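From the shared-data thread, chain only:
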Amino acid sequence: MTKDKSQLLRSLTIDRSAAKADRRDRRWLPIVMTAAVCVVVAFAAFAAYEFSRQDSTKETASQTATQPAPQPQTPPPAPQATTNGKAAGSLAASGYVVARRKATVAAEITGKVVEVFTDEGRTVTEGQVVARLDSVLAEKDYELARSRVETADAAVAAITADLEDATRIMSRVQTLSQKNFATEADLTKAQARVGVLSAQLRQAQSQYETAKIDAKRSASMLDKHQIRAPFAGVVVDRSAQPGEMISPMSVGGYTRTGICTIVDMDSIEIEVDVNEAFIGRVQPGGPVNAVLDAYPDWTIPASVIAIVPTANREKATVKVRIRFDKKDPRILPDMAVKVNFMREAKANGTAEATAAN
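Structure, as tokens:
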């Protein structure tokens, strides 16, 4: 009985070795399946690549067989000459409006500004007084010089009267000496007095001329206190104010050198820098179309004045001067401008069109 129970119990026990072997087999199964899938995918990709390469080779060979032989290209026709301005082309450049006559009006002497008679935007004429300096001392010097002139003139008149009297006395003594009524000593004394008075008269006359020169110099110095415009134009800048010191040379930071700046509006022109590689296309007297940046819709006719015979080494440009065919008050100095140098073809075409009309 006991033996049967022992066999029964052994039959109910679990065999651990078989379960472990089963688990080991299941662990390797996913790895083997993954490797097999990778091999299949790689083989399929290789087969697809070989197939596509064979197809592309066949297609290239068929295209090469069906492509016609290349035909020689026909050169494009040469452009026909025309008198149209756009077809002929033009050279463009940019620059600024400048004034050939522009001056800063300054005094020739050092002094204090008393009055300024002009302001920005006003028109002045040549010789017009634009400012006045303190001239009290200059006026005194001029009065003193005039007084010296009057004194020298009076001295000349007095010596002239004495000389005339001495000349009459000498003549009378000469007459008496011929009749033996006067001695030789009296005649010599009269002649000596005439000679002395003649020398004094020349000295007085020289002093008189010197006094007049000094008076003119004083008058000129007095006139320098009146600062005048050197030419007719428009005042574009006023620098000095009444009460300030002005001098031909700047002394420190409190002395000005100019009263105002005047521009001659009749002397304005255009200065542009043209690339030296294209300067051969610019000719003196050639037609030009100018457009101000301030008025982009306004084309101004102009012409070339001259080509400045020097080049800018840094910018590789040559300066060209251009005149306006007609002045306009809207054109102001330092305005930016763009110009087009027109070809001779356009000029000839314009002339022909004008003649036809």
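The first strand starts at residue 90 and ends at 99.
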